[in-house]
Amino acid sequence: MGSNSCCSLAYNKSESLEFSPEAVTLSSFDPIRREVARIALSSLILDGRIHPARVEEMVEKARAEVDQAVQKAGAEALYETGIAGLHPELVKLVGQLKYRYSYGHNVLKHSIEVSLLAGIMAAELGGDQQVVKLAGLLHDIGKAMTHEVEGPHAHIGGDIARKYGIPEVVVRGIEEHHDDEGRVSVEGFLIAAADAISGARPGARRDSLEHYVKRLEALEEVANGFPGVEKSYAIQAGREIRIMVKPGEVDDTAASKLARDVAKKIEETLVYPGQIKVIVVRETRTVDYAR
């Protein structure tokens, strides 16, 4: 089913369709086209009648189904975050994030989380909740277009927001959430913080067991390389490391310095999302018995 299938499922160089025993593999940078092809192929296989006219019919049905799902996902995201009045095309782009993943993390769910988290922080700081919530929901909107437009998704998202009349204060929050230029507004800082919290929480991103174990072992290896360390334990999915030191070799002052040195070594040698908490534990026990 290549370019000869009446061009409805025509593929470009970035897409592929591979057949193997009992499996069909679809590959495309465009998640919407990929989903349309998946639904159409599933319907054709179940129907059993695979010929050009039937392919066209199934593709049209699949497109209608995906369009409906996209509109519904966008509307539900706006309802969940308490946002209204967006341009229908912008709502559609938000819904398209349903089919986009980043490190195994669904981008639409991530965007909703960022919107709600940023809104909570803005409320605590006395900021404009609606502005920050809208910027949070749209902060990754550029990812819906990265397969069509070149450039960082934050800048693409800012251009899209301007196109549909989003206020400049919201646009700044979208463009600054990765702090590429070092000049960040309050809105940009809140979106960046909420983005980090959502992406770094345990279970947010898919991780293979092998990679997960290696990451924890590397973290413990860094801590164990310092003198006076008896044992270290990486916990909280690698978000925290607890270091047990030998009390005879490391005093209270040295323990404080060790925590700083370990944190600095982790920053220099490891790659990790969010932040890692370093705790140094020094314990001295004196035991005696009255007989």
SSE diagram, text form:
Blueprint: E1 16-20, E2 23-27, H1 31-47, H2 52-81, H3 88-96, E3 101-102, E4 105-106, H4 107-125, H5 129-138, H6 153-163, H7 168-175, H8 186-200, H9 209-224, E5 229-235, E6 240-245, H10 252-269, E7 277-281
Parallel strand pairs: 6-7
Antiparallel strand pairs: 1-2, 3-4, 5-6
Helix pairs in contact: 1-2, 2-3, 4-5, 4-8, 5-7, 5-8, 6-7, 7-8
What report would you give on this structure?
- It is globular, with a radius of gyration of 25 Å.
- Helix 5 packs across helix 7, helix 5 crosses helix 8 and helix 7 crosses helix 8.
- It has three domains: 81 residues, no CATH class; 112 residues, Hypothetical protein af1432 (Orthogonal Bundle); 73 residues, GMP Synthetase, Chain A, domain 3.
- The N terminus is likely disordered.
- 53% of the residues lie in helices and 11% in strands.
- The protein has 291 residues and is mostly helical.
- It contains ten helices and seven strands.
- It starts with 15 loop residues before the first strand and ends in a 10-residue tail after the last strand.
- The strands form three sheets. The chain has a three-stranded mixed sheet with strand order 5-6-7, covered by helices on one side.
